[in-house]
């Protein structure tokens, strides 16, 4: 960033906060009004501006925060956290809405926690290998591997931490005790059709760092920072009459030397 001295004022706008009040620190000796531009998607990535940043993430359609629904292929009924959470998980609903929708908390590319409507997590712990949605903090018992069919990635099986697959043995209870043939046939009670609810998933820095994992994410983001906005851009802005830039930064960059995972310091 070698061109700040040519009359470009750096305004670090905190994410989601208007930059106007911050100008007062920077305007000593400046000619007002400023002519400024916002450099979004540089230090805070925004998926809609550069979707390709997400392309290398394994299972990139299952980013953290994605909402999914599961239909038992055997019963042709949706999995439901009864009452929206706090009790059993069943597979008896003809259509899917809030209680039949699960939000993915992505542990890594194939392991997930499933958060239900009232924010509990699906997990082991019910009667007779029954699956319940009672825990408010996800642990090992609330972690599931999503195993996708090669030919149809939305045909899935869910492996629990006890090593068994979930099954809808009856419509009235989903259990974690299927150890039978791993066929993908409709009548296999451990096979579910997964619907990804479109539109709700954020594509932000959380999803990038969580999705790639810390090492790969650092590499991808470093490359992005180095190439998305460069000295040449500042030169161009300066030569075309701009006198300020606004650069959104995340609170994890600006405020916190040890940000929580998956964010990292620069
Ligand atoms: C993903 O997470 C699961 C559960 O914590 C772990 O058993 C598995 O080894 C992890 N896989 C990778 C590739 O990190």
TrEMBL record:
SUPFAM superfamilies: (Trans)glycosidases, Actin-crosslinking proteins. Residues 59-197 form the DUF7910 domain. CDD domains: beta-trefoil_FSCN-like (cd00257). One of its GO terms (biological process) is establishment or maintenance of cell polarity. Transmembrane segments: none annotated. It comes from the Eukaryota. The keyword Signal applies. GO terms for molecular function: actin filament binding. Residues 1-26 form the signal peptide. The keyword Zinc does not apply. Coiled coil: none annotated. Keywords: Signal. One of its GO terms (cellular component) is actin cytoskeleton. This is DUF7910 domain-containing protein. It comes from Rubroshorea leprosula.
